[in-house]
Specification:
By secondary structure, the chain is α/β, with parallel strands linked by helices. The protein contains 15 helices and 21 strands. It has a ten-stranded mixed beta sheet with strand order 8-7-9-6-10-11-12-13-14-15, with helices on both faces. A six-stranded mixed beta sheet has the order 16-17-21-18-19-20, sandwiched between helices. Strands 3-2-1-4-5 form a five-stranded parallel beta sheet, with helices on both faces.
């Protein structure tokens, strides 16, 4: 469901008792954690016991499993209810909140409420938001800052996806999928790239790109924007924002970037690059996450940190210490010489980027990939491009579409993706039986290979099952 953003956004301290419907999601759990850490009474419900909930429970937040009207009164009568976009109008807690006349807020308004009085750096883009937000947070922590942050995945360094810091900085992943990023009014922003996506909400590619244009107009006129100039969509935003008088810092490998990368070297799961500002070499930036796209994400984070006044040495120390966020090329384990990774990639550009990164890891082995398409609307529009991107693997298993907030369409299945994979037929399988996928991957894998599960849905659950089957095969 899509709730309107109130005309007047109250600061979190004025929301009273806050209940979260869908508290287990990446977005709402982060908001709940920040509120709870600042003393606001918080409770929530979800239909799944997600990886984000243990950290909330450690703070004393009651997280109900399942939805029921009485959950809204667990801490006394709730004053405000923050609702995930995945909730339906007939959710019993939504129905009860409306019956009681409670304040109902979308995720964006809930997050904006926690930003009051802070300098917000909003990280936006079609791809790379979570990683870039994590990189920037890690860099700032290493530089001696203590920012509040809200990330769409668990930071390996902290074990959490959000924290309430003591500084005035607030680093926030800014999601464009439902227009949430138009609410935050940041001091500064990053746009990593702009590729058509979420057309179920925006309707057309033109409307999607226009939303990013509008996003750049919400930045404080005294603030700044960082864009990756190597991406045509982000480059167009940079030119338009500069024309309006906003300070813009460009990063990338292009000669005319303000912060330019040269001599990028990949070594397994690590990479390094020389960083230049004009003709001046600032030094070397090293990373311990694989892939060209991650180098660009790190450069954007570095540009923000430098503009905020932190040192190159401290920032790059934090970037080098960054080992990822949950579900972004996350190593789940290794058995019998076969490594299993999991990643959130669900758009063809993200798939291509993660397969390029996986190639730098696999060495002489093969890349065995399982992909779960996410959303009927996205698969209908981009399924063939997803299939072509998967052609960079050696073996591919395609699952059926993860429906999320949409209804099934018999004409739109994972077969649309599998049929477009440019590999021999015996190296591609469409397997709609979810429970059969782990055994199929294990059957195809051999010592030295990398098994990679890709997708934004339930496929992330398969890693432990694959490792268990590999162990059984090896015994």
């Amino acid at each position: 469901m899509k709730l309107p953003v109130p005309d007047v956004l109250l600061p979190a301290a004025q929301l009273g008792r806050v209940h979260f419907i869908g508290i287990g999601g990446a977005g709402l759990s982060a908001i709940a954690r920040i509120m709870a850490a600042t003393g606001i009474p918080v409770s929530g419900s979800d239909d799944q016991d997600t990886p984000f909930l243990p950290a909330l429970r450690e703070l004393g937040v009651t997280c109900h499993l399942g939805y029921a009207p009485e959950h809204l009164a667990h801490l006394g009568e709730a004053d405000t209810v923050v609702v995930t976009t995945a909730a339906r109008d007939d959710n019993p807690e939504v129905v009860e909140a409306r019956r009681r006349g409670l304040r109902l807020l979308p995720r964006s308004a809930g997050l904006a409420a926690t930003m009051t009085g802070r300098r917000v750096v909003a990280v936006a883009g079609t791809h790379g938001k979570t990683t870039t937000t994590g990189l920037l947070t890690n860099a700032l922590l290493a530089a001696g800052s203590d920012p509040t942050y809200a990330v769409g995945g668990v930071l390996t360094a902290t074990g959490r996806n959000a924290d309430a810091g003591s500084d005035d900085l607030f680093i926030a992943e800014a999601d464009e999928s439902d227009g949430a990023f138009l609410v935050y009014r940041p001091h500064a922003a990053i746009v990593t790239n702009v590729e058509p996506d979420h057309l179920d909400n925006w309707g057309t590619e033109e409307a999607y790109r226009a939303a990013f244009d509008e996003f750049t107009t919400t930045i404080d006129p005294d603030g700044f924007l960082v864009c990756c100039l190597d991406d045509p969509g982000a480059a167009a935003l940079a030119h338009a924002a500069r024309a309006r008088g906003l300070e813009v810092i460009t990063v990338g490998v292009s000669d005319d970037c303000d912060l330019r990368l040269e001599h990028i070297v990949f070594d397994g799961a690590a990479s390094s690059t020389k960083v230049f500002r004009g003709d001046t070499e600032l030094g070397e930036m090293r990373l311990h996450i694989p892939g060209h796209h991650y180098v660009l994400d790190a450069a954007a984070a570095l540009a923000v940190g430098l503009r905020l006044g932190f040192s190159f040495a401290d920032l790059t120390s934090g970037l080098a210490a960054f080992t990822g966020t949950g579900r972004r090329m996350e190593l789940k384990g290794e058995v019998a010489g076969i490594r299993v990774y999991d990643s959130y990639a669900h758009h063809h550009v993200e798939i291509a980027g993660d397969l390029q990164a996986a190639r730098s890891i696999v060495g002489d082995g093969r890349l065995v990939v399982a992909f779960q398409p996410h959303l009927v609307s996205r698969t209908r529009t981009l399924g063939a491009q997803m299939g072509r991107a998967l052609g960079a693997a050696d073996e591919v298993v395609v699952l059926d579409v993860y429906l999320a907030r949409e209804e099934a369409d018999p004409a739109v299945t994972g077969a649309l993706v599998a049929d477009a994979v440019p590999l021999p037929a015996e190296e591609v399988a469409y397997l709609p039986d979810f429970d059969a996928v782990p055994a199929e991957l294990v059957r195809r894998a051999r010592r030295g290979d990398v098994i990679l599960t890709l997708g934004a849905g339930s496929i992330t659950q398969l890693g432990p099952r694959i490792l268990s089957l590999l162990q059984a095969r090896d015994d």
